Amino acid sequence: MKRLAMIDAYRGFALVNMIAYHGFYDWVYILSMPLAWFSTIGVYIWQQFIVFSFVLISGLVFNYAKHPRKRGMILCFWGFFLTICTYFFVPQELIVFGILSFLGSAMLITSMLGKNKHTAVISFFCVVGFLFTEGWQNGYWGFYGIKLAALAFNPSDNLGLFILGIPGISNYSADYVPIFPWIFVFWLGFFGGQMVNYHGKICSKTVNIASKDAWWYKNLAFLGRHTLIIYLLHQPILYFLLKNIIK
Fold it and tell me: Which structural domain range is residue 76 located in?
């Protein structure tokens, strides 16, 4: 769809960032090659930007999904596939409810919702919901170290709570994107996309502003249209390349 060309390019940009981040991650945590700067706050902000980008864009383009439940089930399948692969081949990097599992679940949940005329109000409450629940996985109500109140209980190692966003002491996932707070970011894209008239003048002007003939724009848009297959293949390729660099 032509009106989504710029969104594809931005998703491609986020994908390039993710590949770069995972390259450094593999270098440090899988191949045990030290990089002091990789544990800085700037890298954490970079990682959060990548997650925000994928979740928000996925919520936005969900407004145009022709088979939303089918798409959700496909992503859930591939998310489970990655869990099985990491469990047997790289258990130290086990992925339980990573980005694909989250996006698939968010699509299935959101497919039960309809369009709403109060999108501005809902978008506001999505922001509030995120700010209140971002700290769940660290045991408090709040966000990014701002503690509004402690959670009322100490969770056990329960998979259901882990998926919701409240991990137990022993729970671990190399890629962890729980339902809360990230469902609010997905819904912010979903309802925010309804609030903005992407079928009208705003979208057409936005696309016209973009450098559609630039090579970087075309390449980013191409990557954005093939995000899933690139996501599934990039880690084995990265590992192979980095392993050979060390040799």
Answer: 2-246
Neighbours of 103 (CB within 10 A): 25
CA pair distance 217, 45, nearest whole angstrom: 24
CA distance 186 to 164: 15
- Is-contact 163 85, C-beta < 8 A? no
pTM summary value: 0.90
Q: How many domains does the chain have?
A: 1
DSSP code for 55: H
178-200, pLDDT tens digit by residue?
A: 999 999 999 999 998 888 754 44
Cα 211 from Cα 217, distance rounded (Å):
7
Q: What are the b/e assignments for 119-153, b being 16+ CB within 10 Å?
A: beebbeebeebbbbbbbbbeebbbbeeeeeeeeee
